[in-house]
Design a protein that fits this description.
The chain is of the alpha/beta class and 376 residues long. It is built from 15 helices and 13 strands.
Length: 376
């Protein structure tokens, strides 16, 4: 039986990798995982996977500059050295670097290393500083990688041209249960009443951490430019910009029409309660939240950036806007709020696009890559 170690933060593992862990176990692989803890959800991880796989805890921080990460590197070296694995599959920038460094010597003995990037920090239109800081690291680490897996077409093209991993692969994201979002049922009237939203209002929904990259500010400024009397904007997520965004909403005079709901476990129900999904990110590896909204049958107003452009088409699935152009977001929202039939037409198209990103397809793609690399 082939042995695989999967490394990531506990959050990524919980949100995206659990179905792949279960599928690999079902397919005959002996799987262990090693995770760092960034949001205090390790107990939840143990509840979900503790009876299925061995779970190692690694002392790593998300910030690459933390000197304590050397302790995490030591943890990983010991885990890999003692685990007798056939493959290590690693994810995320800091964990990806540390895991590949820890596995470097054992590659000479046949250990295979798979690195899945969930979105390079350098891309078309990104700050030059991102290229200066992150590109040299990824380029160097690619030399310690047997298989580099990308989840959007821009990263795939860049990796094929510039990275020197053993093999470069593309998959359709890490997987989404599209049927679950498509068929979710909810009492819209009751849920809107609970949220304090009129039944006939047009509801916009965004899901994402309250941080600069998710760019909620541009949508708040767009909302302030339009006639929002019958429009309500729901934002789900927590983060460092929480106070700033609340203050901005108040200063723009739109506080009564913006709902900050924090972290939510009922995103599928909220999607069914909404009319338009808004995803104004500055950068996305793919954008799973956007795919969830689209799978629910919502038209999407999103940024015209890498990842998102893989599955959206301006004028068909909704509208694509430049990330910092509040006027463009305002115009797109105005067009959709005024035309229910258009929303339904674009929502249907959006739902169809997400089928290629279904978890069933993603599991097959990941399994095939692993089988090609280490066999059964």
């Amino acid at each position: 039986m082939k042995r695989i170690l999967i490394t990531s933060t506990e959050v990524l593992m919980l949100h995206f990798l659990v179905p792949h862990v279960k599928n690999l176990r079902k397919s005959g692989y002996d799987v262990e995982i090693a995770c760092s803890e960034v949001l205090g959800r390790f107990d939840e991880l143990r509840e979900v996977l503790g009876e299925l796989v061995v779970i190692h805890k690694v002392d790593l921080k998300r910030s690459p500059a933390r000197i304590k990460n050397l302790r995490g590197l030591s943890d990983l070296k010991q885990i890999i050295r003692e685990g007798n694995y056939d493959m290590v599959w690693t994810n995320e920038p800091v964990m990806g670097v540390m895991t590949r460094l820890a596995a470097r010597k054992l590659r000479k003995r046949g250990l295979k290393v798979l690195y899945m990037t969930h979105g390079f920090h350098f891309y078309k239109g990104s700050d030059r500083l991102n290229w200066v800081l992150f590109y040299p690291v990824e380029w160097t680490m690619a030399h310690l990688t047997d298989v580099l897996v990308t989840i959007n077409q821009e990263d795939y093209a860049l990796a094929r041209k510039r990275m020197h991993a053993g093999r470069i692969k593309y998959i359709h994201g890490i997987g989404l249960d599209t049927e679950y979002f498509r068929n979710r049922e909810v009492n819209v009237k009751e849920m809107r009443n609970t949220l304090g939203i009129p039944e006939q209002a047009v509801v916009l929904l965004s899901v994402g951490e309250l941080q600069r990259r998710k760019n909620h500010e541009v949508m708040l400024r767009a909302l302030a430019k339009m006639d929002y009397s019958n429009v309500y904007y729901i934002i789900c997520g927590e983060g460092e910009l929480n106070n700033y965004l609340h203050e901005l909403t108040a200063s723009l005079g739109i506080a009564e029409h913006v709902l900050f709901l924090g972290y939510r476990r009922d995103i599928s129900e909220l999607c069914k309660c909404a009319d338009i999904f808004v995803h104004p990110s500055r950068r996305e590896g793919l954008g799973i939240a956007a795919l969830e909204g689209m799978a629910s049958g919502l038209p999407i107003v999103a940024s015209q950036i890498n990842g998102i452009l893989d599955y959206t088409t301006d004028g068909e699935t909704g509208y694509n806007c430049m990330p910092m152009d509040a006027d463009s977001f305002c115009g797109a929202i105005n067009t959709l709020t005024a035309d229910k039939a258009l929303r339904e037409k674009m929502g249907t198209c959006a739902g169809e696009r997400t089928k290629a990103y279904d978890i069933g397809i993603a599991k097959k793609e990941v399994l095939q890559i692993i089988e090609e690399c280490v066999g059964r």
